[in-house]
């Protein structure tokens, strides 16, 4: 999945207007959407066939035979001759279309944690060829999980290491954000997306001052 923020060039001309946003100046394009536009999951999902799952497994075994580091996963060493072409339009949807895609069909329980990461990075390599940083240590992956074995009280942990719901937010460090689900929660555990362009248009229509504050480039960045 990916969330793409409004392009700066498209909003510079309307950013500092005090009046409500005229209809002819609203952001337009495939990034403007609401949940009602995607009533059928098939409309935004890429469902792998059994043959394509087997292809992923073969690519995994081939990569492991090269004795490379996980950071080295790339299209060149994680070859997907049949699935790869299907990922091209998926990448186009993320970069130029609605901004998100759900890939389904892989059974997480079949893979070890390390193999699961390799598969995730291998498929992601067909979406984007660079990886953003998740923290100041240079990690490109973060694990969203809670453990009963941790001694730190849940209320003192970071939100991604608790069972608490997280508010809507935009992750830092990259333009495209990918999530891999390894285990389903016993209850809850839903992921919600919202269109940044739709939010922008609504705020510019009724609260343009809020947009001015949010888009002023003086916010502190914490990683």
Query: N-to-C SSE series?
Result: HEHHEHHH
Distance between the termini: 21 Å
What strand order characterises the main sheet?
A: 1-2
- Provide mean pLDDT, rounded: 83
Strand content: under 5%
The biggest beta sheet is recorded as:
2 strands, parallel
Helix fraction, binned, reads: 25-40%
| Overall form | globular
* Structure classification: mainly alpha
Please, how many domains?
1
Instruction: Give me the count of strands.
Output: 2
Unreliable stretches, pLDDT < 50, 5 or more residues? 1-6
How many distinct helices?
6
Rg value: 20 Å
What key phrases describe this protein's structure?
mainly alpha; 29% helix; TauD/TfdA-like; oxidoreductase activity; 223 residues; globular; oxidoreductase; disordered N terminus; TauD-like_sf
Spell out the blueprint of helices and strands.
Layout: H1 8-11, E1 45-47, H2 50-65, H3 83-96, E2 102-104, H4 113-124, H5 196-206, H6 208-215
Organism: Ophiocordyceps australis
Keywords: Oxidoreductase
GO molecular function: oxidoreductase activity
